[in-house]
Amino acid sequence: MVIELDERDIERVASKVTELLRPLLKSSFFKEEGEIIFDVNGLASYLKVTKSWVYERTHLREIPHYKVGKFPRFKKKEIDRWLESCKIDPEPFPELAVEERRLSHG
After folding, report:
1. Domain limits of the chain?
2. Tens-digit pLDDT profile for the chain (106 aa)?
3. What is the pTM for the complete model shown?
4. Could you tell me which of 34, 31, 80, 71 has the C-alpha nearest to residue 51?
């Protein structure tokens, strides 16, 4: 069975699909990355660390966060920026760095 649609029918279908998807696209599931807020569990999962690590870094003020009452909250955009600041670039010639360390220690 073959169904043929004319251009007006296709436009109506597309319009209805758009209408149905619009609320989903505005939902919190599809928030822009910068608007995502993590709690401690969410951040620990995102960074692949323990909750105690997150609490310790928060207590030491080493990680950007907000306090909502007694609850720490973290903006993904700020965490990503902080994470980038922790980046360690590789040595351009790792074998030379190893040799320099060996010579300086012994």
Report:
1. 31-106
2. 778 878 888 888 888 888 887 776 665 555 565 589 999 999 999 999 999 999 999 999 999 999 999 999 999 999 999 999 999 888 777 777 666 777 776 5
3. 0.58
4. 71
